[in-house]
Amino acid sequence: MAESEVEGRDRELHQVAADRLASIDQRYTRGRRELVGALERATNPLTVEQILLTATSVPQSSAYRNLVVLEDAAIVHRIVTSDDYARFELTEDLTEHHHHIICSECGNVVDFTLPGAVESEVDKALNAAARKIGFSGDHHRLDLVGTCADCL
Fold first, then answer.
1. Contact of 145 with 78, CB cutoff 8 Å
2. Does the pLDDT value for residue 117 go beyond 70?
3. Taking a C-beta distance cutoff of 8 angstroms, is the pair 150, 106 a contact?
4. What is the CATH number that goes with domain 1-95?
5. Do domains 1-95 and 97-152 have the same CATH topology?
6. CB burial readout 86-117, b (16+ within 10 A) else e
């Protein structure tokens, strides 16, 4: 991807974040922008400690408060695992549809995508199950939980 395309996408993400925060009467502060930038650069969901490795000017106590606000504004999604640390990522509508592999021992989370044909079949199966009970689903999340290679 060309550098100008990356810069344009970056500006677009930050404008969407600013707009969503404004809709809940919050400002898009420098610290919130830095947290969003750290999550944008990440290849997998991150703990607060991992986020702070790149969002170095954000104090830890401020990071926790701001992540809650970003979650309330539908910018950040929290993933709760079996360990003591939640992981955070940008909401799927700001990135791409994906799923998670979660280690039940260490809590590590890795993103993965399914081939289009498989994703289509999963959607069909879930929609059929929802129709059967009169449920109207709008999206799905798939987490594969088990033990990672490091914990085996």
1. no
2. yes
3. yes
4. 1.10.10.10
5. no
6. bbbbbbeebeeeebbbbbeeebbbeeeeeeee
The pTM (predicted TM-score) of the whole model is: 0.84
- Strands (DSSP E) found in 31-130: 76-79, 87-90, 99-103, 109-112
According to CATH, the superfamily of the domain at 97-152 is Ferric-uptake regulator, C-terminal dimerisarion domain (3.30.1490.190)
Tell me the CA distances in angstroms from 148 to 25, 44, 47, 114, one per residue in order: 41, 15, 17, 19
Report CA dihedral (35, 104, 137, 46) to the nearest 10 degrees.
Answer: 10
- Residue type present at position 82: S
Each domain of the chain, given as residue ranges in start order, spans 1-95, 97-152
Q: Is 134 buried (19+), middle (13-18) or exposed (0-12) by CB count in 10 A? A: exposed
What's the confidence (pLDDT) of residue 4? 45
Distance CA(123)–CA(95), nearest Å, equals 19
pLDDT in tens, 66-114: 999 999 999 999 998 888 889 999 999 999 999 999 999 999 999 999 9
